[in-house]
Amino acid sequence: MNLSLGKANKLCSPKIIDEVFESGMQVKSYPFVLKFKETTLPKDVSFQIVFSAPKRTFRKAFQRNRIKRLCKEAFRSKRSLLDTYLEKQNKQLALFLVYTPKEELSLSLLNGRTEKLIKKIISQLESNDVKN
Prior knowledge:
Elements: H1 14-23, E1 25-29, E2 32-38, E3 47-52, H2 61-89, E4 93-99, H3 107-131
Parallel strand pairs: 3-4
Antiparallel strand pairs: 1-2, 2-4
């Protein structure tokens, strides 16, 4: 299985990003807030994601870039959980991940929290399937 997080997994479409914020679901799991929506993506991947660090909290661009790099690495290492679930269910997700703390957290901590976040996403998707 491909463990990289390449260009195909980058969510660029402003239209889809707007849809995620208007009608998507939200999962909170410290240090992240994740908005996501089940949608049809232009590329043949199970998910596309945007990483965000608030400018209000991290004034300098190099700080925001470092935070986003750490988040990408944490998500990349745990992505197989989400990939396998979405491929089994034959679904595509658009994800928007926001980093919320006011300080930089370690990569090892982010790895554990990312895994917890992905499990929350999967359980929320399963509970929605039961409702529908």
